[in-house]
Amino acid sequence: MKSKILNKLKYFLFEFIIVTLGILTAFSINKWDENRKQETEEYLAYQSLKNDLESELYVYNYYKQPFIKSKNYISPILERNFEDVDSLMVYLNSSFDLQERNATYINLKFSGNLEILKNNEIKNRVTLYYETYYQALENMSSWNYDFRLHFLQPYLIKNLKYSSEEDLLEHLKKDQFLNIVNSQYQLMEYNISSIEKAENLINKTIEEIDRELNKDK
């Protein structure tokens, strides 16, 4: 009788161990699958963020180079060197318009998935860029638009309809026009400085993302 009971206890104990191991194994597999899924989502998020940031760099360089050329062209004119003024109208019209390329960050933020970025340095840099730098760049875009709309274009339309070199030379003797040229020059300096700060942060972020993407290779 005792032997029978003992055999049953062994059987139940064996069954309990088998069931427990099965549950633990299933839990481990599910946990492993979940971790793999999160790692894949994190990897894809880094890739997508990198693509967005590289697009930003391309566009910022597209704006920055004309600003640099315009600044170098206008600088002698502000020093009353009027030997080369025939292209002034072209350089005066350099401007900046922020086109948002933050789809990945916005999707991560508003879907509550920003936390899948386990690299805190990347997450902090990306958040700093899109939450702080973007606001400054949006303001810069507005200032460029307002200056052109309310100061530069009204003066040019009213006074320089044909913009011949003689007209330009005549107006460059006037303080009002020189003040507008000087204001545009200062705005260009600010534009270049702001873009370079953004580029610096973006480049550091991309470097960190590359290290993360290549970590397991």
From TrEMBL:
Transmembrane helix as UniProt keyword: yes
Protein species of origin: Bizionia paragorgiae
Residues passing through the membrane, by range? 12-29
- A Pfam family matched by this chain, by name? DUF6090
- Could you tell me the keywords of this UniProt record? Membrane, Transmembrane, Transmembrane helix
Q: In its keyword annotation, does this UniProt entry include Transmembrane helix?
A: yes
User: Under what name is this protein listed?
Assistant: Uncharacterized protein
Q: What InterPro entries does the database record attribute to this sequence? A: DUF6090
